[in-house]
């Protein structure tokens, strides 16, 4: 397969936390130097593409500093996720005659980003203005209520999209990703099988869903330090502080994934509960795809499997 590295000098498994995301009919897993995107084709075969994915923090040391690395990691995740989505969309729809380009997917994501900013940044800070007469000028309270409005919009958004059939299938691959990573982390020799992954939960403390919840909580605290200026100033401050919010949220997620502290376990519990909305129980065929992605991320080698009976792998 094109652009596939011949080998990967990966650090010991105990030193690297594998992770990824669900894509269209597949899973992307990120390793220390590559990312692997495995997709179930319409004919039932699995194709796994491996691409270089060296973090920016490895190229520039200062980008690996605490808090800074969180914002950098978010940028890396979005850029790599875009590439994985383009590949998975085209592979999952193979044979239909049309292909999605990186430019088209970028425009779609930019539109999605604009909608997200409107929903989760602009709308809450505008809506809270209608309650100011009841809350006077107590900036901490105003920021708290604004945070709850943001959280309510986020939960409502998740509740709506979970009713979409295609999204439910993506969420099943999300669950498969978590199960396979948990099986990998629990195995002494890091051997993963469908049988080992199947009974495990679909929830994982390092999940991006938990990250988004921490973004809401951290933003409430951080924005409180800037008082309650005019609406346009508030929007500008919130947009400018997004990298800081992302960085702090990343540090909390990172610590929760490594610590056994009861305090951190309590703090991350709501994020795990929220994952019940963004994951579904996968079938064995979806677990196989997630395992293929993990194998590609660990070895740096892409591959294809033979076609199989599609009735057992696709709805």
In order across it, which strands form the biggest sheet?
A: 1-2-3-4-5
Name the average pLDDT. 84
Would you identify the regions where 5 or more consecutive residues have pLDDT less than 50? Answer: 1-14
Rg, Cα atoms, Å: 20 Å
Structural class: alpha+beta
What percentage of residues falls in helices of 4 or more residues? Answer: 55-70%
Secondary structure: number of strands: 5
Count of helical regions? 12
How many structurally independent domains?
Answer: 1
Q: Which features does this protein show?
A:
315 residues; alpha+beta; five-stranded antiparallel β-sheet; disordered N terminus
Topology:
Elements: E1 19-23, E2 26-30, E3 34-40, E4 46-52, H1 56-59, H2 68-92, H3 102-127, H4 132-135, H5 139-161, H6 165-186, H7 194-197, H8 208-224, H9 231-240, H10 242-258, H11 262-278, H12 284-299, E5 303-304
Please tell me about this protein's structure.
The relative contact order is 0.18. It is globular, with a radius of gyration of 20 Å. The protein is α+β, with helices and mostly antiparallel strands. α2 (68-92) crosses α3, α5 packs antiparallel against α8 (208-224) and α8 (208-224) crosses α10. The protein starts with 18 loop residues before the first strand and ends in an 11-residue tail after the last strand. It has one domain (13-309). It is 59% helix and 8% strand. Strands 1-2-3-4-5 form a 5-stranded antiparallel sheet. It has helices at residues 56-59, 68-92, 102-127, 132-135, 139-161, 165-186, 194-197, 208-224, 231-240, 242-258, 262-278, 284-299; strands spanning 19-23, 26-30, 34-40, 46-52, 303-304.
């Amino acid at each position: 397969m094109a652009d596939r590295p011949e080998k990967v000098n990966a650090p010991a498994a105990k030193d690297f936390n594998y992770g990824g995301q669900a894509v269209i009919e597949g899973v992307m897993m990120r390793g220390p130097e590559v990312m692997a995107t495995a997709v179930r084709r319409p004919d039932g075969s699995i194709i796994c593409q491996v691409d270089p994915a060296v973090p920016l923090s490895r190229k520039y040391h200062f980008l690996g500093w605490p808090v800074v690395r969180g914002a950098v990691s978010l940028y890396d995740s979005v850029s790599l996720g875009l590439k994985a989505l383009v590949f998975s969309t085209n592979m999952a729809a193979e044979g239909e005659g049309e292909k999605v380009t990186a430019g088209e997917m970028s425009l779609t994501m930019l539109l999605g980003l604009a909608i997200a900013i409107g929903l989760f940044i602009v709308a809450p800070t505008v809506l809270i203005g209608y309650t100011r007469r009841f809350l006077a000028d107590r900036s901490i309270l105003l920021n708290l209520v604004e945070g709850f409005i943001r959280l309510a919009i986020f939960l409502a958004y998740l509740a709506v999209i979970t009713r979409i059939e295609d999204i439910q299938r993506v969420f099943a691959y999300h669950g498969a990703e978590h199960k396979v990573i948990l099986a990998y982390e629990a195995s002494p020799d890091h051997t993963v099988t469908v049988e080992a992954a199947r009974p495990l939960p679909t929830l994982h403390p390092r999940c991006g869903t938990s990250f988004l919840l921490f973004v809401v909580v951290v933003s409430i605290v951080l924005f409180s330090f800037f008082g309650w200026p005019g609406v346009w100033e508030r929007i500008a401050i919130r947009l400018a502080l997004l990298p800081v919010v992302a960085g702090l949220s990343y540090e909390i997620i990172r610590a929760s994934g490594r610590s056994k502290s009861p305090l951190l376990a309590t703090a991350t519990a709501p994020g795990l509960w929220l994952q019940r909305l963004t994951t579904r129980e996968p079938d064995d065929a979806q677990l196989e795809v997630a395992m293929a992605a993990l194998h590609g991320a660990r070895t740096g080698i892409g591959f294809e499997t033979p076609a199989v009976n599609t009735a057992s792998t696709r709805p």
